[in-house]
Amino acid sequence: MATKLLITFAICRLIVTVGLTLDPTELLRLAVEGQLSLDPSDLETASLDFGMMGRAKPLAVLHPASAEDIVRLVRAAYGSALGFSVSARGHGHSINGQAQTTKGVVIEMSGSSKGRGTQGGYGSKPALMLPRVSETKRYVDVWGGELWIDVLRSTMEHGLAPKSWTDYLYLSVGGTLSNAGISGQAFNHGPQIANVHELDVVTGKGELFTCSENQNSELFHAVLGGLGQFGIITRARIALEPAPQRVRWIRVLYSNFSAFTKDQEFLISLHGQPSSKKFDYVEGFVIVDEGLINNWRSSFFSPHNPVKISSINSNGGVLYCLEITKNYHESTSDTIDQEIEALLKKLDFIPTSVFTTDLPYVDFLDRVHKAELKLRSKGLWDVPHPWLNLFIPKSKISDFDKGVFKGILGNKTSGPILIYPMNKEKWDQRSSVVTPDEEVFYLVAFLRSALDSGDETQSLDYLTNQNRQILRFCDDAGINAKQYLPHYTTQEEWLDHFGDKWAQFYQRKMEFDPRRILAAGQRIFNPTP
Ligand code: FAD
């Protein structure tokens, strides 16, 4: 330990004496077990994200071999007179450069082509990073950069699975826990941040702490939904449940928005009921045009389906699709039909519009990846993604429908629009995440792809401008929307976003990252020299 501290101290001194600008090659002298890289391809990867709307090249990239490597790097940054920032990058699936930095080092938490599990690059994935399942206590310990798909694969070997998900599994544990991690299970289990027992976190001072409800609880709650501002998650202990075997996946359509939201709200109100009396997943989406056929949620409405949307939507208006699932084991499959029937009877959808499919649990959870592969094959995945994710209070969702779905959007969407309600009681208010001030609120997600197709309404400019229009409409109509995966460029906007939570957020920052080294790409704080 003493030797490590001495090495770190020497590196800090070294960086201090480098001169007024930090010379990236000096970073290579930092003693790490993994690899500090100036390789142009590493810098290029770290300078991009899924949004593909901005590029920011770091000074260097760290492929860590352990949490200790991260401690060493952050300590060096913390002790540096010049100051350089450190950004953890999970799978780089942010939209607006949240995992990037130009004035520092990006830590590739989820590995790269050189790293994970290979004998090349910085070596084999260390044993420390492999998921460890406790069958008796029903949890799994995972490396912060682990992708959820790999968490699922390893827990399934024990017949267990995490309870709360995102729609897409090629995201890192640290990345989704820094936001919230939501999908159709959130009404039942809360977001992913409500399903974590314990974390190991490297703070902005380069200290490694284990934290939980009972131990270093301030850090624990700060980091969950904390946009990477307070520490780098190196390990997370995730709650598990017995894994279902199969999923009955149902979609039904509505032309009446209030009938749609009434049913969604009814379904999430059943969260306290025994599992036989509720669905396991409640989501939904908006269909404003035939674009649905081209987007990554359309596979369900396959050409084999007997019912055509156009035959239902005879007046060409907006349609709403409720998406629900029921998990089951083959041993209980005899009761599943009656349970679903009893629930569907209470809903008010268009009777001829029931689309049902049945598939293995893992295939359901991994559904978006299938669509990703299709889009990739058509060159439609690596394109700019001007996404906008909003939490809308229940009391304003109908105003939002009129103003946005039936107004601003026209009849073009350029991607799926998700809409589903969640209940605030499942969200721990001690975490850093911000939600609207109402018991029930909706996620509305505009997941658009900008294309260079010659059609102006698909261009990046057009869609970015439309996002602005939607935000302006929310302000003007007093909707009190909160951005999920928030993106702001001024501190005034951040203050407004956090509202009552700002004072606590700021205080936590001063305590855990006083030099504002971490996750500068969120643009909440400027690093201090
Ligand atoms: P990155 O983009 O790499 O990082 C995001 C932020 O977290 C950065 O500020 C980064 O510095 C910080 N960070 C990363 N790792 C760590 C760590 N170990 N410790 C501390 N901070 C860290 N979200 C949902 O909630 N539900 C969904 O259904 C959903 N679906 C999605 C589908 C797609 C196709 C995409 C592209 C995104 C989706 N998201 C969804 C959003 C996603 O959860 C966030 O963008 C998330 O941050 C991505 O994870 P990542 O590992 O790529 O994070």
In short:
This protein has helices at 2-16, 24-27, 40-46, 67-79, 148-156, 173-177, 186-189, 217-223, 257-269, 309-312, 333-344, 361-365, 367-377, 397-408, 460-476, 491-498, 502-512, and strands spanning 35-37, 60-63, 85-89, 104-108, 132-134, 139-143, 160-162, 196-203, 208-212, 231-242, 246-254, 281-287, 319-328, 355-360, 388-393, 417-423, 440-446, 482-483.
Give a written overview of the molecule.
Helix 1 (2-16) crosses helix 4 and helix 14 (397-408) packs antiparallel against helix 15 (460-476). With 529 residues, the protein is an alpha+beta fold. The radius of gyration is 23 Å and the shape is globular. It folds into three domains: 2-122, 2-Layer Sandwich (Uridine Diphospho-n-acetylenolpyruvylglucosamine Reductase, domain 2); 127-242, Uridine Diphospho-n-acetylenolpyruvylglucosamine Reductase, domain 3, CATH 3.30.465; 246-483, FAD-linked oxidases, C-terminal domain (Vanillyl-alcohol Oxidase, Chain A, domain 3, 3-Layer(aba) Sandwich), CATH 3.40.462. The model is unreliable at 1-19, 113-125 and 292-296 (pLDDT under 50). The protein has 17 helices and 18 strands. Strands 5, 6, 7, 8, 9 and 10 form a six-stranded antiparallel beta sheet that branches. The protein has a four-stranded mixed beta sheet with strand order 1-2-4-3, sandwiched between helices. Strands 12-13-11-14 form a four-stranded antiparallel beta sheet. The structure holds flavin-adenine dinucleotide. Flavin-adenine dinucleotide (FAD) binds at residues 49-50, 87-94, 98-99, 109, 144-145, 166-168, 171-172, 174-176, 178-183, 227-228, 232-233, 485, 519, 521-522. InterPro entries: Cytok_DH_C_sf, Cytokinin_DH_FAD/cytokin-bd, FAD-bd_PCMH, FAD-bd_PCMH-like_sf, FAD-bd_PCMH_sub1, FAD-bd_PCMH_sub2, FAD-linked_Oxase-like_C, FAD-linked_Oxidoreductases_BP.
